[in-house]
Amino acid sequence: MLDCSNLERVEERITKACERSGRKREDVILLGATKTVKPEVIRHFYGCGLKVFGENRVQEFLKKYEELKDLNIEWHFIGRLQSNKVKYIIDKVELIHSLDRESLLDEIEKRAGKINKIQRVLLEVNVGAEETKGGVLPEEVFSFTEKVLSRKNISLEGLMTIPPYEEDPEKSRKYFVLLRELKEKLEEEFSLKLTHLSMGMSNDFEIAIEEGATIVRIGTLLFGERG
Ligand SMILES: *Cc1c(COP(=O)(O)O)cnc(C)c1O
């Protein structure tokens, strides 16, 4: 018997948050954030019905990708990405959440072009302007977006953020609002539609959903504390 209770509990909380905010459940994607999680655990959750997983480290991702090749997993890349590693993942990931600088943009464009792929990406925004975190600063988002939009083999699908850690998730709301407003301003300025807001983790995903998240990235609540 598969024990799918962690997933069921998270699903229920997502459904409730959607109801509270007048949104449809199918408009929010649950992504399992699986850094340090073993392949057999991922396989277990796949059996429970979770189909989208996100990895942070290229080496770790490649190992799991090989081991789980028989499953129809939709893999996303959500961690800091070194330009020289793009070539290893470009044919394996549906969505890169962490585009945050021009050198990486150039490399994705080049590698996607080589395999005739349009790589879907999100632009990561450093909403708290934290020095230790990746992401484009809010005031740089417009000029960077212009560059992203000029590339042929890249499709910009939205924004992602990891806000400063707050014990009280209510305090993260202002960062989620900021990301949503940035997205709306970009849509207006560039006359385009951005599908995704990737925001919300174990501690604050309900607030993120209330503020418009379309992808929530959850690790601890599904897979337990990381060792
Ligand atoms: C680890 C991680 C998550 C999940 O964090 P939890 O607090 O364990 O849910 C989400 N997004 C990114 C980018 C991560 O690295």
Walkthrough of the structure:
With 227 residues, this protein is of the alpha/beta class. The protein is 40% helix and 17% strand. Strands 7-6-5-4-3-2-1-8 form an 8-stranded parallel β-sheet. 37% of the residues are buried. The model has no long low-confidence stretch (mean pLDDT 97). Residues 33, 35, 56, 78-79, 162, 201-203, 217-220 line the site of pyridoxal-5'-phosphate. Pyridoxal-5'-phosphate binds next to strand 8.
Features:
alpha/beta; binds pyridoxal-5'-phosphate; eight-stranded parallel sheet; 8 strands; TIM Barrel; 17% strand; 227 residues; single chain
Rounded Rg: 17 Å
Biggest sheet statistics: 8 strands, parallel
**End-to-end Cα distance:** 26 Å
Number of separate strands? 8
Question: How many discrete structural domains?
Answer: 1
CATH topology: TIM Barrel
Tell me the strand order in the biggest sheet.
7-6-5-4-3-2-1-8
N-to-C order of helices and strands: HEHEHEHEHEHEHEHEH
How many separate helices? 9
The structure class reads: alpha/beta
CATH class: Alpha Beta
Unreliable runs? none
Instruction: Characterize the overall form.
Output: globular
Q: Give the amount of beta strand, in percent.
A: 15-25%
Mean pLDDT: 97
Bound molecules: pyridoxal-5'-phosphate
CATH architecture: Alpha-Beta Barrel
State the helical fraction.
25-40%
Secondary structure elements and pairings:
Layout: H1 5-20, E1 29-33, H2 39-48, E2 52-55, H3 58-67, E3 74-77, H4 86-89, E4 95-99, H5 102-114, E5 119-124, H6 141-149, E6 154-160, H7 173-190, E7 196-198, H8 205-210, E8 215-218, H9 220-223
Parallel strand pairs: 1-2, 1-8, 2-3, 3-4, 4-5, 5-6, 6-7
Pyridoxal-5'-phosphate binds at residues 33, 35, 56, 78-79, 162, 201-203, 217-220.
